[in-house]
Amino acid sequence: MSKQQLQLTDESGCAAVPLVREPLSAEAAGELAVKLKALADPVRLRLMSAIASHANQEACVCDVSAGIDLSQPTISHHLKVLRNAGLLDRERRGSWVYYRVVPDTFVELAALFDTAGQYA
To answer: Whole-prediction pTM value?
Structure first.
């Protein structure tokens, strides 16, 4: 299925459409702003990238914090922001917490800025 045929919707049924196709509704803009705001931090971008680049887009909190010079509580705060924005899910396995990218997260955000064919 091509990007042009893919209909993206969230839990509320609100379609995420590219900015160049039609104006965003207030509701869609608010939902997308939460995700973009969560990603608009260098540490959170690095954490998201670390998780997304692991197998199955899932990683233990101990793996994603390696190489980031912050305390564990600060890293946990950043992961919580990403989770609250709907970008990550988590699952406790024994004493470790595993984070995974929410399916369609990158597809939804990429589709928002998809301008293919708009400026040709």
So the answer is: 0.77
Q: Phi and psi at residue 50, in whole multiples of 5°?
A: -60, -40
Please report, for the chain, the start and end positions of each structural domain, with discontinuous segments joined by +. 26-112
117: Cβ contacts below 8 Å, ≥ 6 apart? none
CATH of 26-112, one of 1.20.1250.20, 2.40.110.10, 1.10.10.10, 3.40.50.2000: 1.10.10.10
pLDDT digit string, tens, across residues 53-62:
998 889 998 8
The tens digit of pLDDT for each residue in 59-98 reads 998 888 888 999 989 999 999 999 999 999 999 999 989 9
Give, as one character, the DSSP assignment of residue 9: B
Q: How many CA atoms lie less than 13 Å away from 10 in the CB half-sphere?
A: 19
E-only strand ranges, 1-120: 58-60, 88-93, 96-101
pLDDT of the residue at 115 = 66
